[in-house]
Amino acid sequence: MDAQNRNTFIVRCGEVALKGQNKPFFERLLVERLRKSLSSKFEALEIRRNEGLIFIKAPKDYDPDFVAMEISRVFGVASVSHAVETESELEAIAMAAVAFMTNLLEKKPFQSFKVEAKRANKDFPMESPDIARFIGGRVLIGCRELRVDVHKPECRLFIDVRRDRTYIYVDKTAGFGGLPLGTNGKGLILLSGGIDSPVAAWMMAKRGMLIEAVHFHAYPYTSERARQKVMDLADILSEYCGKIRIHTINLLEIQQQIAEKCPADEMTIITRRFMMKIAEIIARETKCDMLITGENLGQVASQTAKGLVVTNQAVTMPVMRPLIAFDKVDIMDLARRIGTFETSIQPYEDCCTVFLPKHPVTKPEIDQILRSEARIDEIALINNALKSREIVTSQILA
To answer: Most CB atoms within 10 A, among 83, 100, 137, 359?
Structure first.
């Protein structure tokens, strides 16, 4: 593809760059994730690694701002810049910089600028401060309405001089950072239709973890629309997390037995323990390394310190709670940022609202909970629940 007919994007790897001898492995995985994620949206992309950066070239038919935004959503990307490239020769750099700034002024007028140069190619005959001064002088001649302001410039012009090419840009679109998907095993999220669990899944995926999901419902007490809401959330998450399989389990029989044979105030905590036990079985079947929940310390009655301890004792597999110390407003802000909030607040019931006790126990004791659970046939109930399982896959793949 001719350079005149393509846009160039510089992708910075952030935390990936700190991986020492493992850095090439993480960079290769990030390139694979970028290729997989972007290929579903754009054609004829070129992606390559070079000197600690990733360069993406896309046809000029695509809106560069949209391409940069899509790149920034891939975990492992710290930032991305839409750049102009030219030969690594001083006069060519100067001419390209003047043309770049002239074009920029036509789109968005400004008055002051500063040049920041980086000489990755140490064989280049001029050092970084001298490159900045020389290019700044040429820009002043070519764009007479501009002035230099090294303290508070309206525009920062970046010049990145490399061995083969030089890159000129002004903006850095922040990415989510984190690590490329597939670098940190797989986890099973207990995915409800609420605000918290989708955010928890997103946060673990940001750390490189592949995501599988289990969703509990109580049909016909919960509606098909409530179930579809969870599928919609999985579709949104899959834009970041890749393909997600959702195991749906009908919990109604278990809830009915708990309501009939156990103390009313223990309904929530015992139900939660059953969810964890079923989730652990599915996690082991699907080779997940851990369970993930959206629980947040003190947010609801079952999420007190003692409640979480008793819940944990239902399983032997590690349970990750990435939102444990977040304020609710912070979780809501992150949900808005990743696009799950509006779907999460749709007013459709979930199974946790079925048989909800008026005064749930907040300081459960494990001995008492075990005595209550002994009144019901746990193995039969879990087996029946697993027989109700249906598996669906998210429709939007990244």
So the answer is: 83
